[in-house]
């Protein structure tokens, strides 16, 4: 027998439509990992309710998120794919970890500060504040070695490591201490209309993001309207945040390095560059959208995948939860 494969775990929230930032920063990594690692991926439906969701639409949003994972190329026979709320141990371990996490460390989380958006503290949901502790529970339950995520989640994984080490010190070694796995290129895809803000599902302007379900004409329109920088050179650099972002998108999706692309577009105009970029995005999205359509017509298949995933994840999670409870004297 060979060496045990490393355990990889990650989650994506069931909020809004996924965009190419999610694809480049997270999903694309997942696909590349499924052959060499023991992968667990899940739809974080308990996290997504930390901001209001319409209950009438929520079930179909969750399914849509699962379908997108599958359409991007995740193979449920190779990985464990499940819905967070199907495994009650996530919420239970989060409670145990709440007793060792501090208000101070949670207040420092930049995602909380961003999502709080300057609102009065008294009106903010406790779930939004506690979000990173649930995320720590997600990771620690499965004894994950590696957590593939975009740059924005790095701080949450550092907190997870701190909580794991603190728990192990106080109550005896119970959890593996995980490491983040952040892509070298594309870990923070920026908005097309504003290269100083991360491409995000929740940004109000739709032109800021390309959704994985955007039809070809919408992709072409959004790319043609993407902001550029002063000057006309198609090169990457600190003084060219908008063009650098577009080059990053093109490079990660096409597999051509940024220097190769700079050479190819040297002396060419933005119009030609943007048309080529739109082509690359459309070519990436086409097979994903085709598979998505097939999956949408086959809801019982997705039910089966989720049932199988939960049946595999539940006993693994329960084993760690039982160890944590026993370590605490419960
Ligand atoms: P929101 O922007 O509304 O907070 P999100 O798009 O960040 O949502 P998630 O579903 O939580 O939503 O993210 C899923 C994964 O995609 C995470 O690993 C995250 O780090 C990654 N990701 C999100 N946005 C980007 C981005 N702009 N560039 C690269 N990776 C991203
Ligand atoms: N917080 C993450 C989603 C998420 C996650 C996780 C990622 C929830 N639990 C566990 C990795 C591991 C986000 O907003 N992208």
Keywords:
330 residues; mainly alpha; Rossmann fold; 2 domains; 3-stranded parallel beta sheet; two-stranded parallel ribbon; 7% strand; globular; binds L-tryptophanamide
What does this structure look like?
There is one protein chain. This protein is mainly alpha-helical. It has two domains: 7-187 and 299-327, 3-Layer(aba) Sandwich (Rossmann fold), CATH 3.40.50; 206-293, Tyrosyl-Transfer RNA Synthetase. The chain is 54% helix and 7% strand. It has helices spanning 20-33, 45-48, 55-71, 89-98, 103-107, 110-116, 126-141, 154-171, 216-225, 241-254, 258-264, 270-296, 299-327; strands at residues 7-13, 38-44, 80-83, 146-148, 179-181. The strands form two sheets. It has a three-stranded parallel beta sheet with strand order 1-2-3. Helix 4 crosses helix 7 and helix 7 (126-141) packs across helix 8. Bound molecules: adenosine-5'-triphosphate and L-tryptophanamide (LTN).
- Derived from helix and strand composition plus strand pairing, the structural class reads mainly alpha
Name given to the CATH homologous superfamily of the largest domain: HUPs
Give the CATH topology of the largest domain. Answer: Rossmann fold
- How much of the sequence lies in strands comes to 5-15%
The outline comes out as: globular
What is the arithmetic mean of pLDDT? 95
Total number of strands: 5
Second CATH tier, the architecture of the largest domain: 3-Layer(aba) Sandwich
Report the bound ligands by name, code or SMILES: adenosine-5'-triphosphate, L-tryptophanamide
Helix % is 40-55%
Strand line-up in the sheet with most strands = 1-2-3
Stretches where pLDDT is under 50 for at least 5 consecutive residues are: none
CATH class of the largest domain: Alpha Beta
């Amino acid at each position: 027998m060979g060496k045990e494969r490393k355990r990889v775990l990650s989650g994506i929230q069931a909020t809004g439509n996924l965009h190419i930032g999610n694809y480049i920063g997270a999903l694309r990594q997942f696909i590349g990992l499924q052959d060499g690692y023991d992968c667990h991926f899940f739809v974080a439906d308990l996290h997504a309710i930390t901001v209001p969701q319409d209950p009438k639409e929520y079930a179909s949003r969750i399914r849509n998120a699962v379908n997108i994972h599958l359409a991007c190329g995740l193979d449920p026979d190779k990985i464990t794919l499940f819905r967070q709320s199907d495994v009650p141990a996530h919420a239970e371990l989060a409670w145990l970890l709440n007793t060792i996490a501090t208000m101070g460390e949670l207040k420092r989380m930049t995602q909380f500060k961003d999502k709080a958006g300057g609102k009065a503290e008294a009106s903010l949901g406790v779930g939004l504040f506690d979000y990173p502790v649930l995320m720590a529970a997600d990771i620690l339950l499965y004894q994950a070695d590696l957590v593939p995520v975009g740059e924005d989640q790095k701080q949450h994984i550092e907190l997870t490591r701190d909580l794991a080490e603190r728990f192990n010190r106080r109550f005896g070694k119970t959890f593996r201490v995980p490491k983040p796995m952040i892509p070298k290129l594309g870990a923070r895809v920026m908005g097309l209309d504003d290269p100083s803000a991360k491409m995000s599902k929740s940004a109000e302007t739709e032109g800021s993001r390309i959704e994985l379900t955007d039809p070809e004409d919408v992709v072409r329109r959004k790319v043609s309207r993407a902001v550029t920088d002063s000057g006309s050179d198609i090169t990457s650099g600190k003084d060219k945040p908008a063009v650098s972002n577009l080059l990053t998108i093109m490079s990660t999706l096409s597999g051509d390095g940024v220097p190769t692309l700079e050479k190819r577009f040297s002396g060419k105009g933005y119009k030609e560059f943007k048309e080529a970029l739109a082509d690359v995005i459309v070519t990436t999205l086409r097979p994903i959208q085709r598979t998505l359509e097939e999956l949408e017509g086959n809801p019982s298949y997705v039910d089966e995948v989720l049932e199988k995933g939960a049946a595999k994840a539940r006993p693994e999670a329960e084993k760690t939860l039982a160890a944590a409870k026993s370590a605490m004297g419960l």
